Target: LysR family transcriptional regulator
Amino acid sequence: MKLQQLRYIVEVANNELNVSLTAEKLFTSQPGISKQIKQLEDELGAQIFQRSGKHLSGITPIGEKVIDVARTILNKTHDIKVIAQEFTKPNCGMLSITATYTQARYALPPVLRVFMQHYTDIALKMEQGDSAQCLANLKNRVTDFAVLTDLTDLSEEMIALPCYHWNQAIIVPKTHPLAQQVVISIAELAKYPLITYDAAKDGVDIRQTFIKAGQSANIIFNTADADLIKTYVRLGVGVGIIAKMAMDKTEDNDFIILNASHLFSYNTTYIVFLRSLYLRNYMYDFIYQFSPHLDKKTVNQALSCANNNQILTMFNGVKLTVK
Model:
């Protein structure tokens, strides 16, 4: 049994049984991968993959268990290299982050600017995706950290640390009827077409607030992109409901920004990582720079918790920043 064979079966599973795509990603040949998988199956005396002709069509029950163990072994071999590098090259390595649009566009840039100035030999890898993609990247170890709001797909192998709260704001052109309102109600908002976030992608669903108030939200445009919300509000298409931190007082001075904290509950941004991740010192620093209440001691305390419910309880008395 070879590590290479374990890597092949894990990557084939990650790539939805597409051997050709796996070969392309691993810079090797399709016949070479197929041969190594067959040799491993012969050694085990059991099929890992189901086949339909020459194509892989599924994973056998024993294959599921073998692949799970193979993932663990590969992860541990990676950790051995990381541990060695922590002592030999403490300020060298990679920081990979997958974040939802709002976090990637508005929350992370100032933090990463300072981080990269300090850690000049750390390679940064960024990816933007919806909440499900962020957590899928974590599960598949494509990324070290996910920064997001929606924890619907969170699994027990993941650690979620609360970073800060953020509120929504209502934005309208200066000539809009709502521009003169001091306090806006849900009933008043229901009179206008709305442009806001896609709940499926960003985890923020304002519809529930309207339903609880006995109103219907006339949402004409859903998007994860705050800049698109601004664009269509500028066109006069509708009223924007947007993350307050996405508004710039200088660049967005053509809008009236109205408080919505009394209408919509605040959202919480989390930084999420696998419990099995070996946290290097520069990773602790990144977490701390993103959320100063998450120092190394606090992160390690969270890691000692049995599950995420205990972690959330641990932060009950912590007053998070509101953006």
